[in-house]
Task: structure prediction
Amino acid sequence: MSRRVVRQSKFRHVFGQPAKADQMYEDIRVSKVTWDSSFCAVNPKFVAIIVESGGGGAFIVLPLAKTGRVDKNFPLVTGHTAPVLDIDWCPHNDNVLASASEDTTVMVWQIPDYVPMRNLTEPVVTLEGHSKRVGILTWHPTARNILLSAGGDNMIILWNVGTGEALLTLDDLHTDLIYNVCWNHNGSLFVTTCKDKHLRIIDPRQRLVVAEKVKPHEGARPVRAIFMADGKVFTTGFSKMSERQLALWDLKNFEEPIALQEMDTSNGVLLPFYDPDSSIVYLCGKGDSSIRYFEITDEAPYVHYLSTYSSKEPQRGMGYMPKRGLDVSKCEIARFYKLHERKCEPIIMTVPRKSDLFQDDLYPDTPGPEPALEADEWLSGKDAEPILVSLRDGYVPVKNRELKVTKKNILDSKPPTGPRRSQSTCDSNFSPSALEELLEEIRSLRQTVQAHEQRISDLENTLCEFANGTD
Result:
């Protein structure tokens, strides 16, 4: 009797299909910056793409439904003074996007549901703390308003976006350029890869490297690492012979990978995208024209090749839709947004099923938009699993929720009591009552500016509705 060799898996026949021509986003000048980020970020409401722009850095944010040719005068987000290197949507607010730039700053933007009439130039908050370009951004998976940034100064900063302050600065854990950072599923640890050829598992609140692997891949090219849902670490890199590799590591024994596969001799860095619900890893190489996908299981050989989606044109970057943005009625289990030189093309990954009913096995409850913790709770040592939502009836994005930033402003704090050394004649002549008067005037001006901004925003909204009505 011959034994059954074919491994049983419901994802064995997953196939990818490009969207129809009228569902693409045309006439977008995708950025040519040489940086290994995905250049694209998507969520259930918007697709954001880093674009070419003169005299600074810009990206474009399009509502998902705004397909077809993009008007050359379509408003951009243009606050940075140098090229934008990375963008990332907040997992807990579909209208909030962070951007990192060569100008050493991180900016956090409130994107309106309507299409604005002019470029967005004013971020909700600008985070300044890096001394060199910032190339990596990633939001905390379960805690509200915590954003991690990594820069060319080999430093990682964790920010509380709600107060505009740095919560933690990790400036002595890396000796060279950081290639990538990825949180684990509950945000208690993150993994980093670095130009010094070390892979590190870091506990940010203890400021400690809890596990470390030197040369997870022997080659000199960049390594990428991501956390699996069960705590294992998946890496992509290069062998000594410059062959691309993937590997799976168990933190209990970091000496040898539990799985190692060689792929091909292409030189593009492999960007891994991971779906914890189906335990599938998708590998998209920059400059490749294919997406390979693998299923990760608990039994040897652990990493199982499923298939490859191939196309004719190479990808400049890739966006990956969160699970709650997929069409469950069509058994869609992943959607990518592939960047070409002048357009963005959605690619839909589907499990072929005959039934029209909701497929429970394909769509377990998935992380929703509600944070499980506040920033202060996480900082004090609490951890929490993501709050899950069911996709049975599909996910409907919530209305625009405003990000409120309450900066701890020195102007808002009362002057210190007790004797104070006079620093200059100007200081000594400034009475408390005059200072209070000045503060009152500043508050009044601030309220006036906010009122005018709100009025302009309302007028833009009305204009848009009017324009849409006449269409």
In short: The first helix runs from residue 375 to 379. The first strand starts at residue 15 and ends at 18. Confidence is low (pLDDT under 50) at residues 409-428.
